[in-house]
Every structure is written in C-alpha cells, then in structure tokens.
Write the structure tokens for this entry.
Amino acid sequence: MKQKVYISDEERQKCRTVADAFAELKNEEIDIVVADAGRYGFVRLLYYDESLGFDKIVCYTNSVALFNDLWKDWLNEQLFQIALKNPPLMDLEYEDIFKALPEEKQKDLMRKHHYFAQRSGITDA
C-alpha cells in the first residue's frame, strides 16, 4: 500500500529554509518551534505546558503560509513587549499598537520582515 505524500520535495525544502531562518529566534524571548513531520509537511507547535505538552499544532505544506505565520508570531511578540513597557498600549490590538509606534520603529520592524524573507527565500510574503 502506497502512503500518500502531502508535501512536494520542492515545498519541503522551501519550508525547511523558512524554519531554519526563524530557528535563530530560539535564543531570543520568543519560543518558536517548527518540526519536520515527514510526508505530512512541517508543524508549528504552540502553547507548551510541561505536564500536558503542546496545546496546539498547526501543519504546513506551503512555505509562504509557514513564513507568514512565523513572521506574525515574531511581530506580535515584539509588539506585546513594547506594550508591556507602555501600559496605555495594552488595550490595543496588535495592528493598532504597530500604528501607534513612531515611524522609525515601524521601519525597524519591517526591516526585520525583509531580513527574514531574504533568509527564507520568500519573495511573495
């Protein structure tokens, strides 16, 4: 019986490149875990609890979707950290926190998007 493959070899390599680009964040304040799930694609593991394990698992077979979600995780964590230092921002949505930032800080964050996109080989994110 032939096993079904859910991700092409080309897309597997692209997802691996995206995962590797974000792997450097393991030493930063955000804990992003992406694992190769073989023929099923790649999985992003979320909300770890020592006694229960991971609460949420999201599977990816598309590198752009993986990139966009990892970028969103990273950006939201940065915005959350900024809001912690500026309590009036805590009541805002992430998009509104971003808009409330000085233009130079917004540019700094978007430069990081470009950095990750370049390292990931993603051009249409």
About this structure: DSSP finds four helices and three strands in the chain. The radius of gyration is 16 Å. Strands lie at 33-36, 42-49, 53-60. The longest strand covers residues 42-49.
